[in-house]
Design brief:
Elements (H helix, E strand, L loop, with lengths): L30 E11 L2 E9 L9 E7 L6 E7 L5 E10 L15 E9 L9 E8 L7 E2 L13 E11 L2 E10 L4 E7 L6 E6 L8 E12 L2 E14 L8 E9 L4 E3 L17 H5 L12 E5 L9 E6 L16 E2 L3 E8 L2 E8 L8 E5 L4 E3 L4 E6 L4 E9 L5 E7 L9 E7 L4 E5 L15 E5 L7 E7 L3 E6 L4 E6 L7 E8 L3 E11 L1
Antiparallel strand pairs: 1-2, 2-3, 3-4, 5-6, 6-7, 7-8, 9-10, 10-11, 11-12, 13-14, 14-15, 15-16, 17-18, 18-19, 18-20, 20-21, 22-34, 23-34, 24-33, 25-30, 25-34, 26-27, 26-33, 27-28, 28-29, 30-31, 31-32
This protein binds beta-D-fructofuranose.
């Protein structure tokens, strides 16, 4: 991968909008992409990330660093691992080496070890290759030293990257496991080590399911199905770019078992139930049969935190898409992380599915809650509720009874024809059983031809009501439906600060049973 071929820099900004999100992390003045080295320790969540310390387009890759205690309010720290004339620092993960297997520790200090991809540049003897390297910290992640024996794992490959490392303990023994990708071969490679320095290959997985682009940023973790510790499953997440279900970048997942050597995908995991009975006729339809972490355009490179207590599995994704990431109209910063998401496994329609719910804690101050006192009957004309003042974020929780309506949902912005240039529609279609987000009229959309879009996902309600939770944070929305059964994340760049929420039903009636709008300023 090079800057010019894979992640081209955008043209000079036409409209630089002052729309820095409130609930999402952005770097103060610079560019970010993938979350890296997500780790929790002593009450603090550490978010490292792909960062260009010198600009707001992709390039000069280093690991930026931010910390938070509530997953909402973040403090930016100096660059943690800088690149140099020989290497760019690509994505990877961090482990706390409690047993000092690496030998980087001292008598009274436990080493934190970052395993990252060195993308070697021309002056390096390894030029052109991508290989796995180590850096360590003896002050709980604040400052880092590169290991002098880098790289520790090379295949002489040009596209071997994004190591996620965890401590495996099971019937097969206790050791470090690394999952990484051979990106252009659509393969996840698994390695094992006793000391984080010497690695032996265990197995490989793939190509499988979506293969229309490079596989990047894998993760592998166990989760109990339906909260039952006796029903442990393993989830393998694999990001793909391009070739995701909504176009461009996205994250797919596989459910199966990991025996300490290989990941074995469950039978039928490649074909979860879809709403339509029709056989797939093209790739787009085939893609809709796979498991996706998110069905929107802007949730990529998602990985999970290590070391979170109570077996919680929390993921963060980069809220952007390589299709247009370098062109999004913000300044001086560019790109935000998604909100942190609690990830669990639940049986839906007879199959295990990843469930995602916002994991952050709301700030103690500046929160205003509006709630409807009576249910609202919907038929025809949209009903409008208070929105957000300029500079606030909204968390909207809505519960509908779908009734006889053919389409129902929420409109963000103004539903009136006069302001039709700036609205985003979140629509459930009862005929096709699909949930969609339409951002074609969401405001500033012309900065890139691939930006205006409609995203949809199959969503069977199983006779139940439709429940939506939507986080609207100035320039993005994350829709979680049916308590996290599906997610759709999309960037939007509304023309005005004011955002109204309207509910509507068409082709019959529906009832808005509950509506809570939480405004965070
Ligand atoms: C994913 C990715 C990774 C790589 C990093 C470089 O967005 O392409 O595969 O490590 O970004 O910034």
């Amino acid at each position: 991968m090079t800057e010019t071929t894979t992640h081209p820099a955008g043209p000079a900004e036409e409209t630089a909008l002052n729309i820095r999100p409130i609930l999402h992390y952005t770097a103060k003045n610079t560019w970010l992409n993938d979350p890296n080295g997500l780790i929790y320790s002593n009450g603090i969540y550490h978010l490292y990330y792909q960062n260009n310390p010198y600009g707001n387009v992709w390039g000069n890759m280093a690991w930026g660093h931010a910390t938070s205690t509530d997953l909402t309010t973040w403090t930016e720290h100096p660059v943690a691992i800088p690149g140099d004339e020989e290497e760019d620092i690509f994505s990877g993960s961090i482990v706390i080496d409690h047993l000092n297997t690496s030998g980087f520790g001292t008598e009274d200090r436990t080493p934190w070890v970052a395993v990252y991809t060195s993308a070697f540049k021309d002056p390096s003897p390894h030029r052109g290759t991508q290989a796995q390297s180590l850096a360590y910290s003896l002050d709980e992640g604040m400052t880092w030293s590169k290991f002098t024996g880098n790289p520790v794992l090379s295949r002489g490959s040009l596209n071997f990257r994004d190591p996620k490392v965890f401590w495996y303990e099971g019937p097969a023994g206790s050791y470090w496991v690394m999952v990484a990708v051979e990106a252009q071969e659509q393969k996840v490679l698994l390695y094992r080590s006793e000391n984080l320095k010497d690695w032996d290959q265990l197995s490989e997985f793939g190509p499988a399911n979506a293969t229309g682009g490079e596989w990047e940023c894998p993760d592998l973790f166990p989760l109990p199905l339906d909260n039952d510790p006796l029903l442990m499953k393993w989830v393998l997440t694999v990001n793909i770019n391009p070739g995701a279900v909504a176009g461009g970048s996205g994250g797919q997942y596989f459910i199966g078992n990991f025996d300490g050597t290989s990941f074995i995908q469950d039978e039928h995991d490649d074909s979860p139930p879809v709403s339509s009975e029709a056989e797939p006729t093209d790739t787009a339809q085939q893609l809709r049969k796979y498991n996706w972490l998110d069905w929107g355009r802007d949730y990529y490179a998602a990985v999970s935190f290590s070391n979170v207590p109570d077996n919680r599995r929390i993921m963060i994704g980069w809220m952007n898409n390589w299709d247009y990431a370098n062109d999004t109209p913000t300044s001086p910063w560019r790109s935000a992380m998604s909100v942190a998401r609690d990830v669990t496994l639940r049986t839906i329609g007879g199959r295990p599915a990843v469930i995602q719910q916002p994991a952050f804690r709301l700030p103690d101050h500046g929160v205003h809650v509006y709630e409807i006192s009576d249910q609202v009957e919907l038929n025809g004309t949209p009903v409008t509720f208070p929105g957000s003042a300029d500079g606030t974020a909204l968390i909207v929780r809505a519960e509908f009874q779908t009734g006889t309506a053919s389409r129902l949902g929420l409109i963000l912005g103004s539903p009136s024809a006069a302001n039709a240039d700036s609205r985003t529609d979140i629509v459930y279609d009862t005929g096709t059983s699909e949930l969609a987000v339409d951002r074609t009229k969401s405001g500033h959309t012309t900065f890139h031809p691939l930006f205006p879009s409609v995203e949809s996902c199959p969503l069977a309600l199983y006779g139940k009501d439709l429940t939506l939770e939507i986080i609207i944070d100035r320039c993005s929305l994350e829709v979680f439906a049916q308590n996290g059964q599906v997610a759709i994340t999309d960037l939007i760049f509304p023309a005005r600060g004011q955002q109204f929420i309207s509910a509507f039903a068409e082709g019959g009636d529906a009832t808005l049973k509950k509506l809570t709008i939480t405004e965070v300023g």
